[in-house]
Specification:
Nucleotidyltransferase, domain 5; two-stranded antiparallel sheet; 12 helices
Length: 347
């Protein structure tokens, strides 16, 4: 059981004292990856725990120089680890998270692309936590995401993204874990593929009266379907958990991200929302930071081209600024010597 103040910082003040420079961050990564044990990426030899400094260590067997961030999402990054860790803290400490533009302003990053890429690497790591299947009584339905357009609402809407929503019903009337996925359409085979991937066979599936659910659940799940037609009931009466999650998801996208997200990258935003919702009852927000850094230390390196989809070349290439920084500045700073002294306050 992870303990505040031992396994993860319990407050902003403690976070600042733990990770004062990159070497503190590297030492925490070493601990997360095996209590200090290091595996050589060249020969595979496991070295015993040992406190070291610097970004590389030398394998005692093959004498190769190995990066301490090798095999993590931080591999090959030029951004200081103090900035990476602060971004993870900002992402976890607020229940609403943080957008790329807000992160760029808060951490004084050199470009929006840097902030966007950092957040997407963390979101990719979050996806690793959603491998356990839902079980028991599970609500299931679909919702649609996209801008406001004229036309048919609901399942008949055009130019919308279909998102499958599943959530566990608990015996005390609450809700457990959830799973979200983008669907190509509403057909039974597509629905069945999602159910097989995310829900344990033998579970009770609670749905509305849509006809595709019968063939989608045949032989795998017990279907508890309630048709809403002519009953006077609404969707949130039969599927309260699904509708609550769909509402929270849309509110989060409109709030934190101002409704600005690319449909090509929506899956990563769904992974982040799932990660947050499934840990909503954590006693301390620092525990999310610990879980995220653990996943980041277990996730392999990712690069910008791994995330960019449907890239379109600019008609006019922008001129790079003459004062462009090669990499983001570290958040490690020397004392400012009270800059306000010697100046008259402006009233």
């Amino acid at each position: 059981m992870a303990t505040a103040g031992v396994h993860y910082p319990s407050s902003e003040r403690e976070f600042r004292s733990w990770f004062r420079d990159d070497n503190d961050c590297l030492d925490y990564l070493d601990w997360l990856r095996g209590n200090g044990q290091r595996i050589c990426t060249q020969c595979g030899v496991v070295s015993p725990p040992k406190v070291v400094t610097g970004r590389v260590w030398r394998c005692p067997a093959c004498k190769a120089r190995v990066s301490r961030t090798a095999g993590t999402i931080f591999q090959d990054t030029r951004t200081p680890l103090t900035t990476w860790f602060t971004a993870a803290w900002e992402l976890c400490v607020d229940k609403g998270g943080v957008s790329a533009s807000s992160l760029q302003r808060r951490l004084d990053l050199g470009s929006y692309q840097t902030a966007w890429m950092m957040l997407h690497r963390y979101r990719f790591a979050m996806a690793r936590s959603g491998s356990d299947k839902l079980r028991g009584r599970v609500e299931y339905d679909e919702t649609v995401l996209g801008g406001v357009r004229r036309g048919v609402r609901g399942r008949g809407a055009a130019d919308k993204v279909i998102v499958a929503v599943a959530v566990e019903q608990l015996e005390d009337g609450g809700f457990g874990r959830c799973r979200l996925r983008i669907l190509e359409d509403y057909s039974a085979p597509v629905c069945r593929a999602f159910l097989i991937e995310c829900i344990e066979p033998g579970s009770i599936l609670i749905t509305d009266g849509a006809p595709q659910y019968t063939p989608a659940t045949a032989g795998l799940f017990t279907l508890d379907s309630t048709s809403l037609s002519g009953t006077g009931q609404f969707g949130h009466d039969v599927l309260p958990g699904v509708h609550r999650i769909a509402s929270l998801l849309k509110r989060w996208l409109l709030g934190t991200h101002q409704g600005s997200f690319g449909h090509d990258h929506l899956e990563t935003y769904l992974d982040e929302f799932t990660f947050r919702f499934n840990r909503r009852n954590s006693s301390r927000r620092g525990l999310l930071f610990y879980r995220l850094l653990t996943l980041a230390a277990q996730t392999g390196p990712l690069h910008y081209n791994d995330f960019v989809k449907n890239a379109v070349a600019k008609k006019v290439h922008p001129e790079p600024p003459t004062t462009k920084r090669v990499s983001s500045r570290s958040l490690q700073a020397s004392p400012a010597e009270r800059p306000w002294r010697g100046n008259v306050p402006i009233m």
